[in-house]
Amino acid sequence: MSGWPFGTQVSSGCAALLLFALSLCAVVALRARPGPGVRRARLLLAGGGTAGGGTAGCGPGPAAPGRIGEWVGRLRRVARERRELLCLPVGCAVAALGKSVLPLIVGALAVPLVRRWLAARERQRERELRESAVIDMCGTVAGELRAGRQPGAAVSGLRDAGLGPGWPAVPAAARFGGDVPDALRKAGRRPGAEGLQGVAACWRVAVDGGAGLAAGLERVAAALGAERDQREDLRAQLAGTRSTAAMLALLPVVALLMGAALGAEPLRVLLHTPTGLGCLVLGGLLEGAGIAWTRRIVRVAEGPGKTNGTNGRERER
Question: Does residue 201 lie within any of the structural domains?
């Protein structure tokens, strides 16, 4: 198999490790641009002098530990902010073990996919936090109204409610006599803050018709809380399905480890033979289809809960 394109031309993992090191250095150089604070710390650590650049007679000895700590901090920051880059060392490790450049290419192609998945998870987390903030805001304002405060004063005291960049316009409108319902509707356009649309309707009804705003806010909070509890209960019921899907997705990795432990050299067969490459491509397609099908089942199961919650919130409006 010496003539196979992905064969033993890459006889060791040195080339893969070199490519990974170069890519990681490039990412660090682009992402970690030293600001004024970093330059000031570098001056202090390097020369022991003032921030203006003067030295106190110290030699260049402390510069090396300070620079090493700075680079370690940069690497930690990049690893925390760009977790999708972990696909590169994994691909390099598999490329070194299998003596092929193909896993490195797959790892590089997986970086944008993992970035999209992590971004979707982050958006979902922010949406849930914003929904919880809406519930807390409704309870807080309702309590202030029950205590005898005016609606404008109760809302204007909420400076940082965790409702996103559109929320500061609401207390500003309440403080300076602006259109509070319109500001609430605009702030409710962000994902997770849709409950502010119901708050705007309650505010409009309370101002125009003289109805109690506290009761309306409590009903909106109760509807949103019921929707959140229903979603969490459904998520708990689907935890078994997600665990089963994750276990089935990891079975090929377990099979490769067992084959390597028995001395069958599965990576050599998969990466250096036409039959192995065909099985690898077919297995990858089936694995992706299985994960996509499982996600579709979960989305269909979560759909009725979301619809019922939305309808319930519309009824509360």
Answer: yes
Q: Which structural domain range is residue 202 located in?
A: 130-226
Measured distance CA(217)–CA(202) in Å, rounded: 7
pLDDT of residue 188: 87
Cβ contacts of 194 within 8 Å, gap of 6 or more: 188, 313
Tell me whether residue 289 is in a domain: no
Report the Cα–Cα distance between both ends of the chain, in Å, rounded: 71
HSE of 292 in the Cβ direction (CA atoms, 13 Å)? Answer: 6
Taking alpha carbons only, the member of 20, 26, 29 closest to residue 90 is: 20
Cβ atoms of residues 1 and 272 within 8 Å? yes
Q: Is the pLDDT of residue 42 over 50?
A: no
The string of pLDDT tens digits covering residues 291-303 is 888 888 888 877 6
Instruction: Give how far Cα 118 sits from Cα of 51, 80, 123, 129, Å.
Output: 39, 12, 9, 16
The domain tally of the chain equals 1
